[in-house]
Write a structure and sequence with these properties.
124 residues, alpha/beta, 5-stranded parallel β-sheet, 45% helix, globular
């Protein structure tokens, strides 16, 4: 197993087709965990935080948006790199999260896999 494959990432999105696509695009280089809600992602992080190096979360999800989820996750898992993926472009909440170093970067849908991979590589 090469070093990249030893890096685990977590992708959070409430839409199943997005989870499937993301995993298919990145599983060649990373161990990919997925979660369909912020709450499920918090449980996954608790169980695998020793392996997960980066988290990419959709911004718009029911119950808990991406920034809300990341704020909760960072409370217990500060050494992980956090990124937002949004279909709606930049927002005031995303700008604040960037300023406060809650997230490292945000990406817009449709995303470019190489852009996400580069950001992960720069963080890990």
């Amino acid at each position: 197993m090469d070093d990249k494959k030893e890096t685990a990432i977590l992708y959070v999105d409430d839409e199943e087709p997005n989870l499937i696509l993301f995993k298919a695009l990145f599983e060649k280089n990373y161990e990919v965990f997925t979660a369909s809600s912020g709450q499920e992602a918090l449980v996954r992080l608790h169980l695998s935080s020793d392996r997960i190096k980066a988290v990419i979360s959709d911004m718009s999800m029911p119950e808990m948006n991406g920034v809300e989820f990341i704020k909760k996750a960072r409370h217990h898992h500060k050494s992980i790199g956090y990124f937002i993926l949004t279909g709606y472009g930049n927002s005031e909440e995303i700008n604040e999260a960037l300023k406060e170093n809650i997230i490292h970067k945000f990406f817009t849908k449709p995303f470019k896999p190489e852009e996400i991979q580069q950001a992960i590589e720069e963080f890990v």
